[in-house]
Amino acid sequence: MTVITDPLFYLFAVPAVIMLGLSKGGFSGIGMVATPLLALLLPPLEAAAILLPIILLQDVMSCWIYRRAWDPWNLKVMLPGAVAGVAAAWLFAAYVSEAMIRLAVGLIALGFALNSWLRRNRIDEIAQPKASHGVAWGGLAAFTSTLVQIGGPPYYAFVLPQRLDTMLFVGTTVWFFGLVNLMKVAPYFALGQFSPSGLATSAALIPLAVASNMFGVWLVRLTPERLFYKITNGLVLLIGVVLTYQGVVQLIGWR
After folding, report:
1. Handedness of CA 185, 189, 192, 195 (dihedral sign)
2. Whole-angstrom Cα distance, residue 235 to residue 232?
3. CB 21 within 8 A of CB 215
4. Residue 255: pLDDT band by 50, 70, 90 thresholds?
């Protein structure tokens, strides 16, 4: 088991892991950048599989930190949909080409970034959530999270309008995606995405992941999130354009 030694890989992987750490510490939106960023260099599912062991370790830390701050009703209605979402992503990834997955990653990233800019920044009324909506949004969040580790926007579409207390919102987010990430292990094994080299590289990046996770927990108590989300949306939009272009080029066979 030898780690990846290409310096270009770490040029992409180091900022991706730092963003994951900040995300798991509480700045959940910024984690959307990680997998699309690494997917600029690697096949999308391979990039997701390298990051998944790191994410699982961060989930354990974050779930412990927010062990008393989570909303049971939201988890109860969203997790059944999440099981179906992970299974659907498994089937999708098993029967489509790498170019299609790359194109899907790019379009998802573009859609989420544009949606974030177009929707209102302020919610005037507290929405009354419906369980059926929670199942649907939970399924979509798990589907996109399994393919590209970008499950936040569908999740936010259901939970943000409820205007939960900040720490309760962060804790519920941490627990939902912690459980979804655990569900991904079997599909990734079945799709052959866990290579010895990838797992060794994941292990090498763990110290950076732990440090950035703790830094994120500290920052979430001190720093406004607005600037982080603006930067994140800009990066996701840029990465979405690049991945969409790459996917189209591969599909039509341009050289």
Report:
1. positive
2. 5
3. yes
4. very low
DSSP string computed for 158-199? HHGGG---HHHHHHHHHHHHHHHHHHTHHHHHHTT---HHHH
pLDDT (tens digit per residue) in 91-106: 887 787 777 877 877 7
Q: State the pLDDT confidence band at 27, using cuts at 50, 70 and 90.
A: low
Q: What is the predicted pLDDT for the residue at 250?
A: 80
> What is the C-alpha separation between 255 and 251, in angstroms, rounded?
11
- pLDDT category of residue 74 using cuts at 50, 70 and 90: very high
204-220 per-position pLDDT tens digit: 999 998 888 888 777 76
| Chain position carrying tokens 């690494």 | 38
pLDDT at residue 119, rounded to an integer: 63
Phi/psi at 56 (5° precision): -65, -40
Instruction: Single out the residue of 250, 241, 231 nearest to residue 111, CA to CA.
Output: 241
Give the torsion sign (CA, 34, 36, 37, 39): positive
CA distance 137 to 141: 6
CA angle 132/173/117 to nearest 5° reads: 85
Residue pair 7/21 in contact by the 8 Å Cβ criterion: no
The interaxial angle of helices 44-65 and 7-25, nearest 10 deg, is 30
Give CA–CA dist 72/94, Å, rounded.
Answer: 33
Q: How far apart are the first and last CA of the chain?
A: 34
